[in-house]
Amino acid sequence: MKQQPLAFRMRPGHINDIIGQEHLVSEGKIINRMIQAERLSPMILFGPPGTGKTSMAYALAKSLDIPVKMLNAVTDKKKDMEIVVEEAKMSGQVVLVLDEVHRLDKAKQDFLLPHIERNLLTLIGCTTSNPYHSINPAIRSRCHLFELHPLTMEHIKTAIKRTLTDNVNGLGSEPVELMEEALEHLAFAANGDMRSALNGLELAVSSTPQNDEGKIIISLDVAEECMQKKSFSHDKDGDAHYDVLSGFQKSIRGSDVNAALHYLSRLIEAGDLDSIARRMIVCAYEDIGLANPQAGPRAVSAVQAAERLGFPEARIPLAVTVVELSLSPKSNTAYKALDQALDDIRNGKSGDVPAHLKDSHYQGAHKMGRGVNYKYPHNYENGWVDQQYLPDTIKNKDYYKPKNSGKFEQQLKQVHEKIQSEKNNTRF
């Protein structure tokens, strides 16, 4: 038993043991409702590595005391699936947990489908790929699709603490003393990946000799070595990495290129490419937006290049893009306008779509007034014609307030103002 990896041994055995994914397994949520009803449906669990897809699948089957078999769509053959079906015929039902389900070939799929249809097999497929792009429609249409989210630092810390007190499957029988800053670093460096955190913890414990008092002391230095990622700081409050990320984003927003490069350097030293990528892309769309609309696609391209190159070369496209983002003109008008529209919707400020805009591509639509008097803009000289688009209750709403930031938005502002002026001249 102890020869199995720690992350495997600590897999949850019941839905109540699952850490994270509250949107699916907490009281009243969809998967919890399945368990309460004792009716497990076929499903695809998808999300980043280490979010607990396979572990959740196993825990769900065990929660209902249904026999469970775990296979891999790539490495296991059709013969292995035939054996599972025979076992299901003997027991009445089997949960088949199928890793890499997006790699399921046609022969295996054709074999499984009739058994899934009859509910002899309850398929729980697990994949890191987007099922809408990668899963065959024949399988996808027969399964619920549930996205698993990256675990937070608090989730990871909860799992580590549980592991250190578990005398059966965890490290409760070991004389481990985990320093608080080491716990923080294990949780942070795992970047939402439970498996990574527990693998790092297991390596730290197994490779650290006992001190003179018979204790295994896991310090920050040990945690850094075992996770192969440096800590932002030796601060015990655990907020240092968030402060650096905040400083990075706000320096780009404030057009301070030197500060942005400084914080980028600290993030690179910590090896935190995921956070760098996310903040750069967010800045490109949130803070620069229409002032330089190509900043977004270029930030995405830089991130893709960095991910392909890996460190240390990844620093090169990152540096180029951070300089561009910092020195680009800034505008948040687009998303601010959308936020105002969303706020109206959420506060009940909506209304019926005007009749002339409603779908008219069906028999009898015109009799109901659908699409009648709609003016097709392309039939007019400027490609624009004055007609009402917003519902009556908010027909005069003006969400978008353009700025003079950057040539592109200046051009948009001119078009916007011209249309508004023509509307006013037409109506008065």
UniProtKB/TrEMBL annotation:
What range(s) does the AAA+ ATPase domain occupy? 39-151
**Cited SUPFAM superfamilies:** P-loop containing nucleoside triphosphate hydrolases, post-AAA+ oligomerization domain-like
One GO MF term on file is:
ATP hydrolysis activity
What's in the keyword line of the UniProt record? ATP-binding, Nucleotide-binding
* Gene Ontology terms: biological process: DNA synthesis involved in DNA repair; DNA-templated DNA replication
Q: Does the keyword NAD apply?
A: no
Extract the SMART domains matched here.
Answer: AAA
Q: InterPro entries of this UniProt entry? A: AAA+_ATPase, AAA_assoc_2, AAA_ATPase_RarA/MGS1/WRNIP1, ATPase_AAA_core, DNA_pol3_clamp-load_cplx_C, MgsA_C, P-loop_NTPase
Pfam families documented for this protein: AAA, AAA_assoc_2, MgsA_C
Recorded family membership: Belongs to the AAA ATPase family. RarA/MGS1/WRNIP1 subfamily.
| Record protein name field | Replication-associated recombination protein A
Q: Which organism is this protein's natural source?
A: Lentibacillus halodurans
